[in-house]
Amino acid sequence: MISIVGGYSKMAFFTRELTPVERFENALRDRRAARQKQADRVSAVETVVAEKRAVAERLAVAGAADAKLGLAEMKLRAVEERAKTLRAELAEFDEQIASTERALTEAKAQRDRDLAADQIEEMALAIERAAPGFGASAAVLVDAVTKNAASVPEATRFSTSVDAMRREVLAAADLICWQLRSAAVRTRAGNANIAVGGPAEFEQPPTQEIDRQLIYTLNALLWREGGEVRRAPAFALVELPKVLLPVALRHQHVDYLNARRVQTLIHIHGSDGAQGEPAADDSQPIDLDMLAAEEESVRANVA
Fold first, then answer.
1. pLDDT digits over 188-221, tens only?
2. C-alpha Rg value of the chain to the nearest Å
3. In whole angstroms, what is the distance from residue 203 CA to residue 238 CA?
4. Minimal CB count within 10 Å: which of 75, 93, 124, 260?
5. Cα separation, 286 vs 221, whole angstroms
């Protein structure tokens, strides 16, 4: 920017604000330079002290007059006091330098944490930008089957599988973005490791024999698989058998991961369950098998 003032051209230079690391580095450099000057003054006065001490010693050994000895001692005490003052000031410089070094170390650590947090947030943003493209591509595959007049069982199963995968991937993308941003906040504050934790451990491991859906529980649940009773606590990520998913959704016992209320509940309770495995004295978990059987009985009676 150039401006004309009183017939003279005047150029204004804009300088960026220094970072905390740069400010502490500058302060440390200045204080070390000042400390060196102080050390030079201390060295010089200590040389004078040594000289005055030697003079007083020679006079004393030579048996000089009291007046002469008194004058020599007075001069020696004066330079000794000066040396004491300068050494105290040098010690203050040392304390200031140590304090500045600690502040510089913390500023560098915060800079590294901020950089790591920025990278984590960039990752979350990249996932958010990529997810709609995946969803749109999957939707095109689904439409290729559902909008065709022909009905082929294999194509229908393919379309259903792709649509379910699309919903799961989009829900998982929402969840990982929330987890990444939470990790970025903790990293920036310095109270968490930079690396994001591994995936949450679900109550039931996925199996190849049972088609499952990753879902978030709103109540404690139980169901049966191969004669074994499976349980899931409230407010937890679980892989629920898809045959039980419709009844659980209809009765508001679970919800999809991309649901707004689920994001809020994960923020409040986490994804591992509010209290872990339901205890014997807790309220009874919802029996999904029984609930499904009751609905089937109602439909049969209506029919």
1. 888 765 444 444 444 444 445 678 888 889 999 9
2. 38
3. 6
4. 260
5. 5
